[in-house]
Amino acid sequence: MAQKTITDTITSQKLNEDREIKISLPPSYSKNKAQKYPMLLLLDGDFLHDAFQGALSYGYYWDDLPEVIIVSVSQNKNNERETDCMLDETTGLPSEKGEAFFEFLGMELIPMIEKNFRIAPFRIAAGLDTTAGFLNCYLYKEQPIFNAFISMSPELGTEMEERIVNRLTAIQQPLFYYHCSADGDVKKMRTRIQALDELAGKINNPKVNYRYDDFKGSSHYSLVLHAIPSALYQIFSVYQPISTVEFQEKIVVLPSGYVDYLVQKYDMLEKSFNLKLQIRMNDFKAIEAAILKNKAYNEFDQLAQLARKNYPKTMLADYHMAQMYEKKGDNARALKSYLAAFQQSEVGDLTKDMMMERADELKKSMPKKGKKGQEVIEETPVEEVPAETPSETPTETPTEEKKSE
């Protein structure tokens, strides 16, 4: 399903005029009535809207980026971007119409959007050169109204380098800050942007997630197409499914706590972006592989509990319990768990044929029934089983799965 885009007009008391805005709702907006979405506010919406929407749509397709509501402000009439973003040359603060526009965004536009659409308490602001520099003024507030800034080749106001660094050093709420330049950027702007990065690189504030990109072979305008995905993937890095790199560098090297890592990953998503998501099957497989590789078989119990919560009435939880018993040498209980899994719904690449094959293999390794004192194993559940069943074994590294449509 494609994104729905609405073009609307908002009457501003602060500006004493009407302003055109464009709102793109995510593909799932009409279906997931309870879901709230982060908001991405774009200045220079006339040319940035489609660029951001394209990058986000691609990220949605691969489940690499969360769905967001895009709100763009049109600024292409009567040189609006220049007058909207006026800064006083002495103070470096919004002045004249810039002061009114500053209040329009924070006191009129954002409240209107939050009143009419399901907005999560996470806001991103983005702009290019003049508009990017202007957006940095929101950092000067004790509690910025934005949680993330995408400042592409910003035209910095008076003393803005020092002020931004001071605020990033002192801020006590989680904040993402992205800015960039390029070797083909406007020279006078590039010099100050590089100076800002040199100062910001010394910041030691765990609340701030900071990134600077210096693109090679790019101009002032072409850097935008490099910066947009880089910034979005910085801000939403925790959202992505567990990759091979994350598995090898962050998970499998842990001495224990593989399931805790998974829980914390999704807790952070909910805490940071107000996104309560079902844990992906690919991420369950990654933790399964880490447990097997490190022989931490007791953690399958905790993983099974998580599976029951996320995939109830499926075979995932019983499958994890069966793995734990089998790896610990308790074949009788492993067999019962595989047979229990057989009775549940298939999920991911787990099938009834696979559960039955595992059960049959265990039966072959166990003593025959009927001897005195020996436990009698339950018969196969009454369901026709194909003569041939696939031979699948769990992989020890996570696989990248294409999102089903």
Secondary structure blueprint with pairings:
Blueprint: E1 4-12, E2 17-25, E3 37-42, H1 45-61, E4 69-73, H2 80-84, H3 97-116, E5 119-128, H4 130-135, E6 148-152, H5 160-170, E7 175-184, H6 187-200, E8 208-219, H7 223-235, H8 244-251, H9 258-273, H10 281-294, H11 299-310, H12 316-327, H13 331-342, H14 352-365
Parallel strand pairs: 3-4, 3-5, 5-6, 6-7, 7-8
Antiparallel strand pairs: 1-2, 2-4
Labels describing this entry:
Serine Threonine Protein Phosphatase 5, Tetratricopeptide repeat, alpha/beta, 14 helices, Rossmann fold, 405 residues
Distance between the termini: 9 Å
Treating each run of at least 4 consecutive H or I residues as one helix, how many helices? Answer: 14
Domain module tally: 2
CATH homology superfamily name of the largest domain: Alpha/Beta hydrolase fold, catalytic domain
Q: Report the major sheet.
A: 8 strands, mixed
> Helicity, in percent?
40-55%
Shape: elongated
* Oligomeric state of the chains in view: single chain
CATH class descriptor of the largest domain: Alpha Beta
**Overall pLDDT:** 90
Structural class: alpha/beta
Order of helical and strand elements: EEEHEHHEHEHEHEHHHHHHHH
Q: Which architecture of the largest domain would the CATH scheme give at its second level?
A: 3-Layer(aba) Sandwich
Strand residues, percent: 15-25%
- Give the neighbour order of strands across the main sheet: 1-2-4-3-5-6-7-8
Report the C-alpha radius of gyration, rounded. Answer: 27 Å
